[in-house]
Amino acid sequence: MARGSGSVGAVRRRRLATMLFAAFLALALGLWLRTEAKVRLVERSYADQTERLRALQAEADRLRLEKARLNDPAYVADLARTAWFWSKDGEIIIRLAKEPEPGRPAEGGR
Asked: Domain limits of the chain?
């Protein structure tokens, strides 16, 4: 009889060990899944920030070029005429209508 009760105890210990191992695996899996989700979020954020950095660098380059061109008096005069319709003394600025795109009627016409 001692032998029979010993085998029951061994079976119970194996069941307990199996349940503890399953609980450990469930906790480890949950931790791993949360970590993977955080890693994906950080990677996505990194990609977004990298793209934003490229766009900002392109904008900074464009602004540097514009700043350099603003030191040219001819460019500034042309910009004043085209953007703000400023003129020199005695000049008259006449704004011409743009040509319509192919397949599109001119403004005001049908």
From this structure: 2-84
Residue type, 98: K
**Could you tell me which of 67, 70, 95 has the C-alpha nearest to residue 81?**
95
Per-residue pLDDT for 1 more than 60?
no
* Mean of the per-residue pLDDT values of the chain: 87
| pLDDT higher than threshold 80 for residue 74 | yes
DSSP state letters, the chain:
-HHHHHHHHHHHHHHHHHHHHHHHHHHHHHHHHHHHHHHHHHHHHHHHHHHHHHHHHHHHHHHHHHHHHTT-HHHHHHHHHHHH----TT----PPPPPPPTTSPPTT--
Sequential DSSP letters for 85-99: ----TT----PPPPP
pTM: 0.50
6 pLDDT tier (thresholds 50, 70, 90) = low
Q: Which tokens is 57 given?
A: 């660098």
